[in-house]
Design a protein that fits this description.
Length: 295
């Protein structure tokens, strides 16, 4: 078991947020000229190569999934979330798309009731309600500024939240290498089936950017895993909201746009709701550990 090193875990987490914002920026840029399925397929191929490299370091028996159906469903959810996010960010600012993606931890609370049998108290329900209110502030339905692309972002968050719930359910039975390998393989397969319907021949510049995006996103995923191996999740959770800073900066430098006041207000509401939910989760787990110790 790796030795705890919270400071190094924090550095890994912050670097991951920078890489994710970079990957999302490249995806938005490429969506102007390339089919979404095509460059995400390139990203997944590189992700699969990295997953195969990690899998080669463990015994073959350890890679056997104990919950193959859930692993396959998780893989479908992850690739669906990736594709829908890019469709959303294509027509939204980086800040808006990133803010809506922050709904996923709150949606996990809702999905954990039917899928994990968890009991959610009034405080966590209030946090979820506040987070959904924050999303409404960001997308402003019924007003002239409403963008239908926000529905892609919301659907992406739902798919990712489902993937997170499944990850929690299989965490005690399957290794991280197994989960990464199956998710990357499923995503590559799904996109390979769809690719012939949309593929166009990319320019050298587009191909280079697609490869960079794949490497950046894969390294970001690995840094998240490393961070959670050496630092508590409760310590790392607030740091991932820092991705909004990098996304907003990228939106200004690359696309010349800044988040408006309502996007910032909605982001603050969603982030505070997410932080409160994480804190309640930490308290709940601590109480459960004390109860087990007494028993």
């Amino acid at each position: 078991m790796p030795k705890d090193d919270p400071m190094r875990g924090i550095v890994f987490a912050v670097c991951a947020t920078v890489l994710f914002a970079t990957s999302d920026t490249i995806a938005k840029y490429l969506s102007e000229s390339l089919p979404v399925v095509e460059f995400i397929w390139i990203r997944y191929v590189l992700f699969l190569v990295m997953a195969l490299g990690l899998a080669s370091r463990v015994r073959r028996r350890a890679l056997r999934p104990r919950a193959p159906k859930l692993q396959l469903l998780r893989g479908v959810c992850v690739v669906t979330s990736s594709v829908l996010f890019v469709y959303g960010v294509h027509s939204m600012t980086m800040a808006q798309a990133t803010t809506i993606s922050f709904l996923s931890p709150l949606l996990v609370t809702i999905l954990s009731i039917p899928l994990l049998g968890e009991i959610v108290g009034i405080r966590r329900w209030a946090a979820v309600g506040a987070g959904l209110l924050g999303m409404i502030v960001v997308v402003r339905p019924g007003l002239g500024s409403f963008q239908p692309a926000a529905l892609f972002g919301l659907a992406s968050s739902v798919a990712w939240a489902l993937a997170l719930v499944i990850t929690r359910r299989i965490a005690g039975t399957d290794t991280p290498q197994t989960t990464m390998l199956i998710s990357s393989a499923v995503g590559s397969l799904v996109l390979s089936v769809l690719l012939p319907f949309e593929a166009v021949w990319p320019t050298a510049w587009e191909l280079a950017l697609s490869l960079v995006m794949g490497v950046v996103a894969s390294v970001g995923q690995w840094l998240v895993i490393l961070a959670h191996r050496i630092a508590p999740a409760s310590t790392l959770a607030p740091l991932f909201y820092g991705q909004l800073i990098w996304a907003s900066l990228a939106g200004l430098l690359v696309f010349g746009n800044l988040p408006d006041m309502w996007t910032l207000v909605g982001a603050v509401i969603i982030i505070l709701s997410g932080l409160y939910t994480a804190q309640r989760e930490r308290i709940r787990r601590r109480e459960a550990e004390r109860a087990d110790a007494i028993a």
